[in-house]
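Input record (one chain):
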Amino acid sequence: PMMHAEVAANDPESVTTSPHPFIRLVNDSKSAVPLTALTARYYYSKEPSGTEAFNCYWVSIGDCPVLAPTVFADATPKTSTADRYMQLSFVASAPTLAAGDAVEIHDAFYIANYPSFTQTNDYSFVTNSDFVSSEHLTIYRGGVLIWGVEP
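The corresponding structure, as predicted from the sequence alone:
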């Protein structure tokens, strides 16, 4: 593949008020990829009602300002493990990702008043605290799926 996605759970608990999926996008190709062309999706099942909000803690390339506003949207079709997704993307001024390099995003999402999310039924959830390659995260380049399996 041209790229692959890795994920680590900074909060591996079965139930949490704030899922913390740390995400790494790895450029496996022989050429640089403009980050602004990429989007990544983390899929989950949304138990609580309310509007999701995003917290960026750190991004390895240019820190949090390189991220475009995070999009939370309904998955189509909805499944028992994925009725919503969090989509990460990059601003136009974001740097390119050199061949063989990776960008790492440390983040969390939550709903005001912090109701609980069950993570064990989330399509993209992993229990490991170290990064592991996962086809349950998807990467798109120019809107075209280049890594992962949609739920």
